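re the bet — no i am not wrong, look at it urself. input seq straight from the record:
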Amino acid sequence: MMLCDAAQVADGKLFILGGGWSITGPDPAPSAIALKLEVDWNEAGVSHHWELFLVDADGREVRFDTAEGSQAVEIRGDFTVQRPQGVPEGTPVDLPLAINLGPLPLPPGGRYTWRFTVDGEANEAWSLGFTNRPAVTA
């Protein structure tokens, strides 16, 4: 999992632009999250559900007011992988994901973490923290 300026998936590979940062802002800017999942050989053909959500330094979900009311910053999806032909049995199956985001109006000076889950399961290694710089005063 990596924070970047932009990402895309093509031919089963991740293409990352401006990757590897953990400090941004203070002004909102587009960003992306590049993920590479390794799906167990025995999980091929099985449907899975993933979720990615943003929390603040206190572990509370980050929410924004919208026309539909207060909304948490969450992204969800489903995936199913197939076993590649000619690959030895037992080989994990790669699944690259590129999630591009518009500018998020996060308050300056805060610490945030993206948390990733698959089928409701979380792992400490499946989180990605970043800091939004404090506002510059004249």
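see?? Residues 2-132 form a domain with the Immunoglobulin-like fold (CATH 2.60.40). told u. also The radius of gyration is 17 Å. so pay up
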